[in-house]
Design goal:
The structure holds two protein chains of two kinds.
Chain A lengths: L1 H6 L18 H6 L19 H16 L17 E3 L5 E5 L8 H13 L6 E5 L4 H4 L14 H28 L6 E4 L2 E4 L4 E3 H8 L50 E6 L7 E6 L1 H4 L4 E7 L2 E6 L2 H10 L1 E5 L8 H12 L4 E6 L2 H6 L4 E9 L11 E6 L4 E5 L4 H12 L6 E5 L15 H13 L5 E4 L2 H5 L8 E10 L2 E12 L8 H4 E2 L2 E2 H4 L11 E9 L13 H19 L3 H7 L5 H13 L12 E9 L2 E12 L2 E12 L6 H21 L4 E2 L2 E2 L17 E6 L17 H11 L17
Parallel strand pairs in A: 2-3, 7-17, 15-16, 19-22, 25-28
Antiparallel strand pairs in A: 1-2, 4-5, 5-6, 7-10, 8-11, 9-10, 12-22, 13-18, 14-15, 14-17, 18-19, 20-21, 23-24, 24-25, 26-27
Helix pairs in contact in A: 4-6, 6-7, 12-13, 17-21
Chain B lengths: L1 E7 L2 E7 L5 H8 L18 E4 L2 E4 L12 E3 L7 H12 L9 H14 L5 H8 L9 H16 L1
Parallel strand pairs in B: 1-5
Antiparallel strand pairs in B: 1-2, 3-4, 3-5
Helix pairs in contact in B: 2-3, 2-5, 3-4
Amino acid sequence: MIYELRKRGTSAMNIRSQNSSVATELPQAIARMSVEDATRLSRRSILKTGAAGLALGVYLARGGKAFAQQPPAASINITPNTFLIIGSDNTVTVLCKHIEMGQGPFTGMATLVAEELDADWSQMRADHAPSNPGLYKNLAFGVQGTGGSTAIANSFEQMRKVGASARAMLVSAAAAEWNVPAEEITVENGVIRHSSGKEGRFGEFAAKANQQPLPENPKLKDPSQFKLIGKEGVVKRLDSAAKSNGSAVYTMDINEPDMLTVLIARSPRFGGTVASFDASATKAIPGVVDVKQVPMGVAVYAKGFWAARKGREALKVTWDDSKAEKRGTGQLLSEFRMLSNTPGKVVKEEGAVDAEFAKGGGRIVEAEFVFPYLAHAAMEPLNSYLKWDGEKVVSRFGSQFPTPDMAVMAQVLGVKPENIDLKTILAGGSFGRRAQQTTHIAFELASVAKAIGPGPGVKVVWTREDDMRGGYYRPFALHRMRGLVRDKKIVAWTDTIVSQSIMKGSPFEAMTMKNGLDATVYEGSNEIPYDVENFRCDLHQVEIGVPVLWWRSVGHTHTGYAVEAFVDELLEAAGIDAVEGRLALMSKKPRHAGVLKAVAELSDWKNAKLAPGRARGIAVVESFNTFVAQVVELSMTDDGPKVHKVWCAVDCGVAVNPDIIRAQMEGGIGFGLGHILYADIPLEDGRPVSGNFDTYRSLRINEMPEIEVTIVQSTEKPTGVGEPGVPPIGPAVANALAKLGLKRPRQLPMVPGASV
Amino acid sequence: MTQLTLKINGQSHSIDADPDMPLLWAIRESVGLTGTKYGCGVAQCGACTVFVGGLPVRSCSMPVSAVGADEITTIEGLKSKEALAVQKAWVKLDVPQCGYCQSGQIMSATSLLEINAKPTDRDIDLAMNGNICRCATYVRIRAAIHDAAKSLEG
């Protein structure tokens, strides 16, 4: 970390960039992103030492300091590849290509490496990899980045091969040193042993291992040999200690000498621009250094946060709203409703849905579901740091998409991409916010740096209000649904969606949009897990001047609710049990059925005797190839639903870190629950109303249910868990409310105006 | 600007600050102790919790000039047996996810155990509901407080 470097008397600018192959071809690279074979480990990605190896020594020292462990500073022994560093003190530091924002990739990547390396867990460490898309690309994206719950999924074989290769090279080095056949050497818990009694540890052999040939195709363990993967109680999070004693360093904590803290006055309406401004009062505030107009508003540069904030308060800006979005959510809702009564573009159609409804007979159920704009509101508000001398750039922040971020910084600053040293550091949450299809955070950072010119480092800080009113919301969405139940069967289903595209106009458009329709809007609605013969999902993709973004579980945040609340209502209309009824319709969905059965068993769905005033509801949603079913038990209070307990079953393929999977389910449930109950960003004349946690109510500990999680045993490829815990909780709550004789909430949040 | 002396974690720090500046920024930027976090600025989230005169306060909403001679304790200066038990339980149960709110959570939990050796779930709700965790690590926060209380019994 930069702060640590300063204390060690090293200027951050002296760190040479390791980005030897920054993608100048980036926009094209993003545009043609395709899912690569995640099992392939290119020779390039397990590079022998060289320039990169030497540079890694620097990262080693910083990594150690950042986690307040004994810095292995003396150990510049570099192991054979760029994913791990073995110190002379026997520590094994895994360079994690994914951002650690709470979801656990530091621990996950280290688990995969340690398993095949036969390391002892106590010797494992982790740090973020530097930005280098050639080496550290997400194999699911083709560029370096984290998202879509892909970290474990794309790294599972890659990181195991890293560990297996390093193990083989350590063994070869020991064999040469001891003059014994390699086959006679064993490795266990970080100790290399020969039957003659000779033994040593990784640190002694790291340098010599470096001279050994890289195994072409290192043998991986059979799952029956796993000692860490999938095991309970063996692996502990690598970042817990630093996050429990205040020593973990986030972007907000960067505090470089001469650094300027920058707050930006942004348009209160999206799309507004600066007409004019008067900075005279601002410049009179002690600590304010400069004021500059930047593309996104007016930037106040100051010595510290408080001076920047007071300076910004004193600023007089006149905004030009001629191109701004001025509609409020009330008006948007009226427009959405009108549209939803007309046919949209068909996403998927099967059977003869209109004819089936026209036949008559049976019972028609109709429902309209409305979903508000939501802010991510991670605990650490948005921020970023950059220092440049006109040529070389050092940047540190919780960059979730380093490759596109770096490309835009290079463009704005007019520097060569190889002169940008961008490193992702710990982020205080993200929920999707720190990755943007527009790379606007990196663009803003570079623009702020450029406006004041080379020299002092700039730290751009968003206040909580800036963060919450800054857009990039979960899109406002409406689902108009119609279903037909006849002879205890669901025979027809339509879902007309009105919402805004996340991907349109972005570099991700080619990858995620078909026929002009954005899959992240309808995902989960077009492929429902139920056998319904006559089916249609259509979409009105509307243009609104409010920037929107993926938000933990993306389209499933609303499609999961609409589908699962609606199927439950149809089953209720047909007089069929919510679990039995779902299972009967899941003939082609064994993994959905698997988690449903597992959660029904865990919660004793069939036989549980509930206290008076309590009811249970269930929902099952697949997202990001992970299957999650949840049962809630709740009662109704004056302050809305009180969820007492949630049972959760998850099938994420091979479970790498069971305790992190449980943690992500717990967190996903709490995150989802807080939002469906309380959260809303209403717009008044285009201006976001909620600005802080007093008006954007967040779940608190007294509202958190007890949670029990079961992980379904599976031999399928591992899939992600960061997002999939979120979608089922909302509809499960709705379905429980229906059991209490209340209506399934049609408009979220369920407790409107809870804190406004 | 005013010259002020703050006693933080047993050390005196002389700083030159706007008297209206919240204590949070004095701790983080003037003194350089960054374990105490900025989350909301309006005493809603608890990420900035420190002890002033032994009691938990939201440092984002307390003017630095209002502290006077009171001793300030931050996450970096926790020493009580309750604090150490809480931190140990946090690590044992792997409570943190993103970790950004956890300094504040630990300060509030420590304060709770210092006045109530055996808190009930209701006591925990009351003591901890001023601390938001957006990762919703609340299940483990609760478990860790019980675990810490138990470890202090023996």
